[in-house]
Amino acid sequence: MAGVSLRPHVHWAQRHRELYLRVELSDVQNPDIAITDNVLHFKARGHGAKGDNIYEFQIEFLEPVEPKPVCRVTQRQLNITVQKKESNWWERLTKQEKRPLFLAPDFDRWLDESDAEMELKEKEEEKINKMKIESRVPKDPFRHLKKGYLIMYNLVQFLGFSWIFVNMTVRLFILGKDSFYDTFHTISDMMYFCQTLALMEIMNSLIGLVRSPLIPAVLQIFGRNFILFVVLGSLEEMQSKPVVFFLFYFWSIIELFRYPYYMLSCIGIEWKPLTWLRYTTWIPLYPLGGLAEAVCIVQSIPIFSETGKFSLGLPNPLNVTIQFSFLLQLYLIALFLGVFVNFRHLYKQRKHHLGPKKRKMK
């Protein structure tokens, strides 16, 4: 049996250019709202004063309004904003002089005419002041050049890491586990190029081209380059270790989403699936990448101890040799501290971009 049609409680307020209607219905379903011949027609199912029913009402406005109302549904109520055709103050909402029983003032938003004029004046002054401030700020004559540089930088890095990822994936499917052992000899040239080019990110942050904080960028880039150039690049024994495959793979997957996100941001485009991937995939991949780096360090310590490579012998009277392997053990501690710092930074970034937005409650 169809529900009985009832009128909901409606509260209203106005400004010189707008009308605000607050319909006291929760869990609104299928709202049908239209303005024809200056009459607002409302019909919806929701939970109101008479329980779960179909509620409807009509309001013929005192003066002409725009025929396209804006509706916003929340869990507790439904808000309708209607634009006046002319900016002025109405003595009442409806054409009929007697106020309908279901209609009442919205005292949460109510202002008298003088207060509304003051509010309107403040908004106009704020807009004018903003325009004055913007006009005083000199435009950067190199802004297009900077934007073009950042787009090209991110594009080149994306293409480089895409080549690494695709190459490693194809080799994995063709060769299976055998691809683990020659990853460095196949991929290292491109990885050298990408990680050397990544030093520009530190420069970009230093000179203010990007707003990224400097410390996380320094920790990540110098950490990676230390592993790549010092640990792997200087020890042939490390270059055939399976851990190199996983290290390069984790690094490349992270960058597959990071660089396209930054590239689109340079031209003011935000693609929500890419934003989600950019600030989500690091959650498993970043700790795994840090673990792979730690494994590289641990596996290289015996080799550096045996060969004495990069060890520093102090002259007499100290006659002490500082083993590079000992420095690597200290670096392990710094590595996990760096992972923690970057993890905390990325978590804040994720919360900022993907966290729930605060809503103002009326």
Estimate the global geometry from the Cα principal axes. elongated
Q: Which band does the percent of strand residues land in?
A: 15-25%
Distance between the termini: 35 Å
Classification by helices and strands: alpha+beta
N to C succession of SSEs:
EEEEEEEEEHHHHHHHHHEEH
Radius of gyration from the CA trace? 32 Å
Which spans of ≥5 residues are poorly predicted at pLDDT below 50? 358-362
| Estimated helix fraction | 40-55%
With strands numbered from the N-terminus, the spatial order across the biggest sheet is 7-8-3-2-9
The total domain count is 2
- Largest sheet properties: 5 strands, mixed
Please tally the β strands and state the result. 11
Q: Give the mean pLDDT.
A: 88
Number of helices: 10
